[in-house]
Amino acid sequence: KLIVSDNGIGISKSDLPHIFDRFYRADQSRNKNEISGFGLGLSIAKKIANLHSASIRVESKPGKGSTFTANFS
Protein backbone atom coordinates (compact mmCIF):
# COMPACT_ATOMS: atom_id res chain seq x y z
CA LYS A 1 0.00 0.00 0.00
CA LEU A 2 1.24 3.49 -0.88
CA ILE A 3 -0.41 6.54 0.70
CA VAL A 4 0.26 10.13 -0.35
CA SER A 5 -1.44 12.96 1.55
CA ASP A 6 -1.35 16.73 1.46
CA ASN A 7 -3.01 19.60 3.27
CA GLY A 8 -3.67 21.65 0.15
CA ILE A 9 -6.89 23.12 -1.23
CA GLY A 10 -8.54 19.73 -1.72
CA ILE A 11 -10.68 18.54 -4.61
CA SER A 12 -14.34 19.41 -4.97
CA LYS A 13 -16.96 16.64 -5.04
CA SER A 14 -17.91 17.60 -8.58
CA ASP A 15 -14.30 17.16 -9.77
CA LEU A 16 -13.57 13.87 -7.97
CA PRO A 17 -15.24 11.55 -10.53
CA HIS A 18 -13.10 13.04 -13.31
CA ILE A 19 -9.61 13.51 -11.86
CA PHE A 20 -8.25 10.29 -13.38
CA ASP A 21 -9.60 11.15 -16.87
CA ARG A 22 -6.98 12.10 -19.46
CA PHE A 23 -6.71 15.85 -20.00
CA TYR A 24 -9.17 16.66 -17.19
CA ARG A 25 -8.41 19.87 -15.33
CA ALA A 26 -10.53 21.38 -12.59
CA ASP A 27 -12.62 24.43 -13.42
CA GLN A 28 -10.19 27.33 -13.14
CA SER A 29 -12.93 29.76 -12.05
CA ARG A 30 -13.30 27.80 -8.78
CA ASN A 31 -9.62 28.05 -7.98
CA LYS A 32 -7.87 31.22 -6.85
CA ASN A 33 -4.52 29.91 -8.08
CA GLU A 34 -3.50 29.34 -11.66
CA ILE A 35 -3.97 25.76 -12.79
CA SER A 36 -0.99 24.51 -14.73
CA GLY A 37 -0.33 21.25 -16.50
CA PHE A 38 -2.17 19.24 -19.10
CA GLY A 39 -4.31 16.93 -16.98
CA LEU A 40 -2.20 13.85 -17.61
CA GLY A 41 -0.47 13.08 -14.30
CA LEU A 42 -3.24 11.25 -12.46
CA SER A 43 -4.33 9.47 -15.64
CA ILE A 44 -0.79 8.14 -16.09
CA ALA A 45 -0.56 7.18 -12.41
CA LYS A 46 -3.79 5.19 -12.68
CA LYS A 47 -2.62 3.46 -15.85
CA ILE A 48 0.67 2.47 -14.20
CA ALA A 49 -1.19 1.22 -11.11
CA ASN A 50 -3.51 -0.86 -13.31
CA LEU A 51 -0.54 -2.37 -15.16
CA HIS A 52 0.74 -3.56 -11.76
CA SER A 53 -2.66 -4.98 -10.73
CA ALA A 54 -3.11 -2.15 -8.26
CA SER A 55 -6.02 0.13 -7.54
CA ILE A 56 -5.82 3.81 -6.76
CA ARG A 57 -8.39 5.90 -4.90
CA VAL A 58 -8.67 9.38 -3.47
CA GLU A 59 -10.36 10.96 -0.49
CA SER A 60 -10.52 14.74 -0.40
CA LYS A 61 -12.10 17.57 1.52
CA PRO A 62 -12.03 21.06 0.03
CA GLY A 63 -9.94 23.33 2.22
CA LYS A 64 -8.42 20.37 4.08
CA GLY A 65 -6.44 18.37 1.52
CA SER A 66 -6.38 15.03 -0.24
CA THR A 67 -5.19 11.48 0.36
CA PHE A 68 -4.36 9.14 -2.51
CA THR A 69 -4.06 5.43 -1.76
CA ALA A 70 -2.63 2.81 -4.11
CA ASN A 71 -3.29 -0.80 -3.10
CA PHE A 72 -1.03 -3.41 -4.66
CA SER A 73 -2.25 -7.00 -4.69
Automatic annotation (TrEMBL):
It comes from the Bacteria. GO terms for cellular component: plasma membrane. GO terms for biological process: cellular response to phosphate starvation. Its EC number is 2.7.13.3. It holds the Pfam family HATPase_c. It catalyses: ATP + protein L-histidine = ADP + protein N-phospho-L-histidine. Residues 1-73 form the Histidine kinase domain. Keywords: Kinase, Phosphoprotein, Transferase, Two-component regulatory system. One of its GO terms (molecular function) is phosphorelay sensor kinase activity. This is histidine kinase. It comes from Candidatus Woesebacteria bacterium GW2011_GWA1_37_8.
